[in-house]
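To: structure desk
From: M.T.
Subject: fold request, one chain
Message: Could you run this one when you get a chance? Sequence is below, nothing fancy, just the single chain.
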Amino acid sequence: MVNKVILVGNLGRDPEVRSLPSGQPVASFSVATSRRWKDRDGNRQEQTEWHNVVCFGKQAEIAGQYLTKGKQVFVEGRIQTRSWDDKTTGEKKYRTEIICDNFQMLGSAGGGGRGGGGGLGAPEHEEHAFGGGGAGGGEDDDIPF
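Reply: Done. Structure tokens follow.
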């Protein structure tokens, strides 16, 4: 069985970072993806989907520090639906989320109006990866900055 999600979209809001009772940081944010097509009459159509993304640990800290509304991001993870009973109505509630394994900030700010590349000072075509493990790679002397 495979439960794998890959999204490329724009952040709908700044990440909200909080801590679990254990002290582990958790960041949650929304990502919008769009699909465009022409209908039978030749009219352009667009449909936007909103995805709830949750990061844990060091990734949550990085997301809170560098991700901002409007930034384009690549998210890789798994889909999970959780449920709970509403305290006021007793009604069962559901929320489907993408549990982030890793993400990459992409160059396009998506018109978010904040500019500046998240304070990293990297060229727009540069991608910044924050993955779930692995040691850092070697020095790369070809980097133009």
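Reply (cont.): The chain has one domain: 5-35+45-130. Let me know if you need anything else for the meeting.
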